[in-house]
Amino acid sequence: MQNSLFDLQNRYASLSEAGDPLERLNAVIDWEIFRPILGRIDAKERKSAAGRKPLCRILM
Fold first, then answer.
1. Domain boundaries, the chain
2. Number of neighbours of residue 50 by Cβ within 10 angstroms
3. What is the pLDDT of residues 33-43, one digit of tens each?
4. Is-contact 37 57, C-beta < 8 A?
5. Vertex 28: Cα angle to 26 and 30 (nearest 5)
6. 34 close to 58: Cβ distance less than 8 angstroms
7. Cβ(58)–Cβ(38) below 8 Å
8. Could you tell me which of 5, 20, 60, 16 has the C-alpha nearest to residue 38?
9. Rounded (to 5) percent helix, strand, coil in the chain
């Protein structure tokens, strides 16, 4: 079954109406303060530009 164009948007809206705890956390926590700490974890220099680009550490 193929999802419609607005399925994800409707799902987020229903979660928000139900009191999504992640929205409350996002309002309270400044995630950017973790970026320097997370950047030091995997600070190896890449050997080549081949392969997937690194993902955002905050997102992970």
1. 1-44+52-60
2. 6
3. 988 888 787 76
4. no
5. 75
6. yes
7. yes
8. 60
9. 50, 0, 50
